[in-house]
Amino acid sequence: MPRARRIEGREAPMADTTFHRALDSDLFWSFRKSWTARVSSLVLLVLFGAAIFAPWLATQNPYDISQLFLLDSELPPMWIDGGDPRYILGTDQQARDLYSAILYGLRLSLVVGFASVALAAALGITLGLLGGFLGGIVDAAIMRVADILLSFPAILVALLVNGIARGVLPPDQHADAAIWVLILAIGLTNWVQYARTVRGSTMVERQKEYVQAARINGVSGSGIMIQHILPNVLGPVLVIATINLGMAVLTEATLSFLGVGMPATQPSLGTLIRIGNEYLFSGIWWVVIFPSVVLVVLVLAVNLLGDWLRDALNPKLR
């Protein structure tokens, strides 16, 4: 029941706050009823917190050469004979504490994932709105570019963009620009899904009465797209962005595993897996196993949360 407040000696209902409306929403009710969504959110919260607070949770800075001691290289996890209590998950061949390297690598992977999703969403939403609202040659040109990109595997397009960027940049700047090149490569690969979804929704929304009323009132085309149509097409975009976060992290890991991602001096999860894979058959299994487990858990949690969000926002399933 809404709370009441006194106005001139009378009790009047007090409007619910945004927080209370959110708690009473169908989305939050679905979240409480879904154990998959709750567990996935908890796992993601732990992983995001570990990435954000990596400098405080890590026992060493794996990027600082002065903190590395080569005599401590290739130590197993601390619960195995020969392990050192200072290194919970052991060390790699460069004497980096694997626990600390995973925390910093997780941070890099998430930064690349979120930034590339933001770039893809911004580009796709903009092009989708323009194509769906304007139609004609603008829509045809955008959709033909999208069709061309869809005819190639996403990883191949990312490799192409990555190769072009590395060819343009001087060799001594490759390491410093690696994260920006990855974000650009992955972002330019994934914008098509947003554009096609937003275009379809925009073509439906532009025929509705509220858009016609806005035109009669003299609202400009850009004003109609931003103020009226955009808020009504963001639901599917949110679902795509959630699922694409896992795909972006996987793409970054794949590129890093192939040696065209983050350098070995600034390892992401994919770089750690590539380095560990080179020493897997020599018995140093922990360097590849633990980063792989973290990557699998992260992507699985994101995908499960995205699946729940897709079902929760689908009115046919309510």
From TrEMBL:
Gene3D superfamilies: MetI-like
GO cellular component: plasma membrane
Compartmental location: Cell membrane
Membrane topology: Multi-pass membrane protein
Keywords in alphabetical order: Cell membrane, Membrane, Transmembrane, Transmembrane helix, Transport
Keyword Amino-acid biosynthesis recorded: no
Pfam families in UniProt: BPD_transp_1 (PF00528), OppC_N (PF12911)
Keyword Transmembrane helix carried by entry: yes
Domain ABC transmembrane type-1: 106-306
Record-annotated membrane-spanning stretches: 39-58, 108-133, 145-165, 177-194, 233-259, 279-306
InterPro entries in the record: BP-dependent_transpt_permease, MetI-like, MetI-like_sf, OppC_N
SUPFAM superfamilies per the UniProt record, alphabetical: MetI-like
Any single GO BP term: transmembrane transport
Family statement drawn from the similarity comment of this UniProt entry: Belongs to the binding-protein-dependent transport system permease family.
Protein name, as recorded: ABC transporter permease
Protein species of origin: Roseivivax isoporae LMG 25204
